[in-house]
Design brief:
Layout lengths: L3 E4 L9 H14 L6 H5 L6 H11 L6 H19 L11 H10 L3 E5 L5 H8 L7 E3 L12 H10 L6 E5 L2 H9 L3 E5 L10 E3 L7 H9 L1
Bound molecules: 1,6-di-O-phosphono-beta-D-glucopyranose and magnesium ion (MG).
1,6-di-O-phosphono-beta-D-glucopyranose binds next to helix 3.
């Protein structure tokens, strides 16, 4: 029986992935590194320092630890300025209706995000009060595809992973959920994502009852 759902944030609840991309692209350009949307796919769900490592390796640029901290800080300041004006209009279609349905069914709602900015984002879009548990980048020591973020969520909920559905838009997140023994719904297309129990294009028109039926098949 499913008793809880853990949601990734960026790309599942709200489309902040574009803002991460803009901020990383800007930083990469300042270092003379070309950073494409295809490169950006690999960074979805991946933590800030690991993302910076990836971008530097693309341009074969070497930086020491203190320089890397400054670069990551600069990217984050740019990202924060981009998300400061987020409102509930940024919530992805169908999410709110789906959350209301979960609440009515008595299913717990948790967040499992790699982002250290998850709480201000949830506050800005007005969804924070829906969450029974929030685990984000400030709580974890290992980034997705490590299952730590979802395992901490399951522990806080006091519910075993087999009774929890994880919703993820990133391959690293799907891998994390499956390694941790969770049910996993991938949000996106089969061209980009593999290994989830089922894939959905998004939440618009999705009912919880229909989703449970699909998961049983
Ligand atoms: P921050 P998620 C992830 O959030 C993003 O997908 C990823 O692009 C970002 O680098 C990571 O958070 C860290 O974010 O720099 O804000 O701490 O998809 O796991 O909700
Ligand atoms: Mg995501």
């Amino acid at each position: 029986m499913i008793r809880a759902c853990i949601f990734d944030l960026d790309g599942v609840i709200v489309d902040t992935a574009i803002y991460h991309f803009v901020a990383w692209k800007n930083l990469a350009a300042s270092l003379g590194i070309e950073f494409t949307e295809k490169n950006n796919e690999k960074l979805k769900g991946v933590g800030r320092m690991e993302s910076l490592d990836f971008i530097l390796s693309l341009g074969q640029v070497q930086k020491d630890e203190s320089e890397m901290l400054v670069l990551a800080h600069n990217k984050n300041e740019h990202y924060k300025s981009l998300i400061s004006s987020l409102t509930e209009e940024a919530i992805l279609p169908g999410i709110k209706v789906f959350f209301d349905e979960l609440k009515e069914a008595g299913v717990f709602i948790a967040l499992g995000s790699s982002s250290k900015n998850a709480r201000p984002v949830l506050e800005n879009i007005g969804l924070k009060s829906y969450f029974d548990v929030i685990v984000d980048g400030t709580n974890i020591s290992r980034s997705k595809p490590d299952p730590e973020v979802f395992e901490l969520g399951a522990q806080a909920l006091e519910i075993p992973p087999v009774e929890i559905i994880v919703f993820e838009d990133a391959q690293a997140g799907i891998d994390a959920a499956k390694t941790g023994g969770f049910k996993c719904v991938g949000v996106g297309s089969a061209e980009e994502l593999s290994g989830a129990d089922i894939l959905i294009p998004g939440f618009e028109g999705l009912t919880y009852a229909h989703l449970l039926n699909q998961l049983k098949q």
